[in-house]
Structure formats: structure tokens, C-alpha cells
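Q: TTF-type domain-containing protein, please. Structure only.
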Amino acid sequence: MKRLDIRTFFSSSTKNISTNIETEPSEPTEPIENPENNDGNNSLCLNKSKNENSNPVIDLGSLESGPKQPILSYPLKKIGKQNRSFSSKYYEKYFWIEYSVHQDSLFCFVCRHFDNLNTSEDIFKKIGFNNWKKLSDKLEKHSNCKSHCSSIEKYTQYKQSKIHGNVHTQLSDQFKTDILNNQMYIQKIIDIILYLARQGLALRGHNEKQESSNKGNFLELCELFCKFDNNFNVKYHAYLSYTSHDIQNEILNIVSNSTIKVITNEIRKCGKYSLMCDEARSFKEEQLSLCVRYCNGFEICERFIKFIDCSQSRDAESLKNIIINELKQLEIADIPIVAQTYDGASVMSGAVGGLQTKIREKYPTAVYFHCAAHKLALVVTDTCKNIRSSVTFFNLLESLYIHFSQPFNHSTFILMQKKLGLKPLKLTQLSTTRWACRYKNCNNVKMNYESIINTLEEEINNNKNKYAIEAVGLLKGIKKAQFIFNLFVFHDILLTIDLLSQTLQKKNMTLGQATSAINGVISTLQDKRSDKSFKLLWDDITNFSKKFGICLNNEESSKKRKPVDNQRLNNSLVTSTIGSREDNLTGEKYWKANVYNTIIDNITNRMKTRFSDESQKLAKSIDNFFILDFDGSLEFIEYYSHNLKIKMDVLKAEMMIVNNYLNSQIKNWTIQDLLSTVTLELYPNLHNLLQVALSIPVSSASCERSFSAMRRIKNWLRTSMIQNRFSNLAIIHIENELVKTSIESKQILEEFVKCGSRRIQLTL
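A: Structure for TTF-type domain-containing protein:
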């Protein structure tokens, strides 16, 4: 049989080779670079042998694939008198060798790729070794040479760098990790500050020293985080913990400015807004609450801006300068103000020298609206002050509140309610600034009348303290017919007024809707004057009085001296007044004529006066505008068309088109249908004026709500707070929903980094 050499082996049958290879199919061949040009990332190339015509390295391994070590039936080669071939057992001992099928030769994988100095033998780098007789000695000698050992070391480092990166990369990765840890730590500090500020809680404590048992909410929360977050614990107890009050103030200022930026961006997008202001005392300072109302699309937004200390400047001119300067700082001073709403104080509402007049000098479109909720509260207050029976009634309610404010009396009152199976309710203090207090007090007394009677009787019977004498007078007062009648009448009337008050305080209330609600309440009060309404109320009073044994006869008329006729005038015709005649009205008729109708008439007339047709003239015009009545809304349109660049002829056409469309599509369409139909692109003039109509505030209740927040933030333990920190905390707390949805801690961190260099690394 003819012996095969290496040439006949390849030419005769490649099938034999492929069927004996146990490894994966060989990858596509790649040209391998010269070692001198290797950068450590690409495969190195063998130099082409001068004695071979074919490329000697087309089947050798790359750095990605590793040494090529095929296992097959290796061809025999006659060396001396014996036929010898390569054996795969050498792979186990020398991991770095690789076999070229095309050349039937061995190469050193590591020297081919990592001997950049060309100190290794070319036989293992370029030419290939195939003297199988001396293979063992040659491999042993090569494995111990200096250049090969250096290549092995480089190869080992290369593999490690592929896993962990080189030294520079490792240092860079550690640097990035440190920055990421620092950022995560500062973000958690920001989140803690945001949580406390949004909840209106104090950050700092009275004593923040290390040995203090209570360092304040902020530091105590940080220590709580340390228990569950080891990385936070390490950073927190490091030299730079970033928990000082200066850092707190800086972060609060960033959050506040970011929140205001969101608001001012929405105002600029709308292109118009309304102004709402009010003043309130905060300990020894007078704070001005500045709020705005605008439309985000057609969504009504009422936003708090800030508190301004106006203790040194409370006249109209100074207040105007404060407000204008603040609008300039907010960069919205050049945007038209379409309305302004304040309470009825002369410094705010004065027609000659008031704040509203001075604001209109700069913003002609800023029409003034007296806060409707304040006007309604004045109606109730004036009514209660100007009717004699009402004054007596509410004074007695106030005396009941004072009596049951005493700890012993209060606890007895609560226990009595529980004993009767009632839900414990507290009597409220009467106040001219708390709009709902009168209704709540009437309701609580009515619901707990039996508890009050029993508690006062128990106090009198026990006679344990000085309040027993007071209880005698109170018990006598609340068992009178006059008290019972006034209790039911005011409970019924104030319930209607309270519902209107809550409606007027809503942020999304429009001027047209408010006018409709006010007119509805006036009509309701007028209807209550009817005999039918009084009869229903009288039946309730009668049943209640019978339950507690109270006589409803007129006590005052029974005490009057019966008038005596002049005997000289007997059989005479008298055409002039000769004195008071006997009042035959008793019981139901007396209370209706002398108390019920008096209260109804008084409160109805005061509402008509304060919410007169003249004062509601623009409101009616706006109401007509919402139903697309062009002629009926001319006053509103003409008032704003010039300054807002409204084209009246185009506006009229837009209103007709939309009106015809809505009538054809919807039988009884509403304002919401109108708003969902009108778009800025199709109806720009109508869209613009609709935003104006929606931006006009009904009340300054948002300012009043900010004062409630002011009491929570700046309480008796936090009076030393500086103005800027107070105002920042206020906007975060009051606009907490906007902060939660629009402000992220990552965004705050980016601003914090931009504010100045930091002693801990936060950026690359």
C-alpha cells in the first residue's frame, strides 16, 4: 500500500479529517497580524513561511477562540527510519501548544500573540515545529525559556483583564463605584428631607449633639436608615455626612425653586394668570400669602408661591412694590394678569388707594373680585350680630364651649355621650375667621343636646366645684323656648350657607358656577319663608321640645303688662295711635313672625346686597360666554379683547361654528363638552378667552388654606426659623402633590451638584 505523506493526506481525502475531529467545526479563518503590531486585543499573525505557498496560519487560534487543538488521526511523517506523528496527549501537559492541520506543525499560542519583542524562537512563532522525534525535549526547553515565560505571564494578565479589566480600568471602575455610592447616599438624604418637608414636619431638634437621646426628626430618620442600609451607615458616620442645617437649607431651596419653576413654566405656556393675596399674623410677623390661578390647558390650577414678610410695609403702595418685585423675580411680570382677588380690607380693596387699584395701574386687565367666601362669611357674621335673639343665642353657645373646655367638665361630657351610645363630639369655638364654626357648633349642640342636659344636671347634683353654679345658669338658658327655636332655625339656615361656602372654596369653581350657586341659595332662603317650609321646621321643634319637656309659649309676651284703655275715649272714634295693643300672637305664629321671618329676611337681604346684580354683572357676562352667547357676553369679550389681542369678528365666527356643532351632536351640552371640543389650533380666539374665564378666581380660599399650613409649619417650637427656610418649607408642604409628581430626587441631586464644588466626589 502506498504511504501517504502530508501532501497526499490533504489532497486525497478531507473527509477522513472531518470525521475524526471531536471538537466544534473550525471557525472561519482570519488573517493573523504580526506580533509587533499587536495591541493586546486582536489576534496576532504568523509570518508566511518562505518555503510554503499557502498561508500557514489560516487554522490557528485567535485570542477570542484560544489555542486550536484538534483531535484527529494525525498524518505520519518519516523521520529517520521510523514513521512518526503528533499525539494529542501533549495538549494536557502544554496548554499553550496548538496544531496546524494545514502544515502538520506545532505552534506556541502565547508566543505568537504576546512576544512583541521577537525573542522567542521563530520555529514556534512563525515556521512551525514538526520534528516529532525531538518534540518532548523541544517543548520542555521552550517552556522554560525566558521569552515564553514572559508571554505566559502576559497571557495570564490578559485573561484577568478580560474579566476584571486592567489596572487603569479597575481604578476607573472603583472611582465610578465610589461616585455612585456618594450619589445614592445624597439621594437618600434628599428623600428624607423631602419626606419631612412634604409632611410639614420639623427637621431639626432642640439638641442635635451625639449624646442627645432625640436629635430631631431628620437625624433620627438618618439613624433609622443606618440600621437597614450598611452603605448609608458607612457614609453617615464618615467625616462628611452632609446632614448640616446649611445642606438642609440648600436642598430645600433647590426643591422650592424647582417647584416654582414648574409653576411659572405652566403660567408662561398659558400666557395669563390671576393674582390672589391675603395677610395673616405669624407670631410677631405679618405674612403675605401670594397665590396664583391659571389654566394648564383647560385644567384650573391654583398654586401657592410663597410667604413674604410684610411687617414693615403694610400700606397699599408697599404691598404693590413687594408683589411686583416678586413677579419680576419669578420672570412672569410681563405676562398679563386677568384678575385679582383679595378680602374686603380697605388696604386691599380700596377703590382709590387700595392695592387692587395700584395693581390695575400696571395691569389694566386685572379686574378686582372681592373674595366670595369672605363676603358670605360677612353675611353670616352681620346677621348674628344685628338680631337680638341671635346675639343671645350665640353668646349662650360660646358659654357652653367655654364651660366644657374645662378638663373635668369635658371628660364628663365625653363619658356621658358614650354612655348614651353617641359618637363623641366636641363643641367648637365661635370665630369670625372660621367660616364653618357656627354651623358646626349648632350641629354638635343639637346632636348632643341630651348629653349636655344630663352632664349639666350631674354637675349641679354633685356640686363638686365652682362650675356647678355656672351649670345652673347654662341649664336654665338652653331649656328656654327661645334657645331651642334659634337652634333649629340657625341649624337649618347655616347648613345651606355652609354648603355654599364649601362650594365657593373649591379650586376648580368658575365665576359663572359660583354666581349660579349663590342665586340658588338666595332662592332657597326665600322659599324657606313659606308657610309650608316653616310648618316642617315647626313640627321638628315641637317634637324635640316635647321630648325634653320644654314649653314653646312666648315667655316675653306673657311678662308684659296688659295695656289699659283710656276711659275718656270710650264711644269715641280714634284715627291715630294711642299706644301698643295687646299682641294676640302666641306659639307658632309668634315665633314665625318675630324670629323666623326676621332671620330669613335679614340674611337674604344681606346676601342680595353683597352679591348684587351690579357686582355680578361681569360674572353674568362670563356665564353667557360659556353658553356661546356672543351678544350676552359682549362686556366680558370687550374687556379683554384689546389687551389679549382677540379678533372679535373671528371670535364671533368661532363661537357660531362651535355652537352649531355642539347642538348637532349633543342635545343639552355642558361646559365640559365645550372644553373638550375647543382646541387651540382650530379656535385660537375662543380657546384664549375660555382660559381667561376659567382663570378668574372666585375666592382667595387658597390663601386661607396656606395660613392653616403656616400654623402647622411655624408652630410655637419653630419660631426662630428664618424667612427663606419657612417659605421653602411652606411651598413644599402646600404643593406636596406637585412636588411628588414633578420633582425627583435625581433631578434635585443634579442641581445640588451644579450649585458648587463638593468635598465628596459626585461627578466624573
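A: Brief note, in case it's useful. Confidence is low (pLDDT under 50) at residues 1-56, 580-584.
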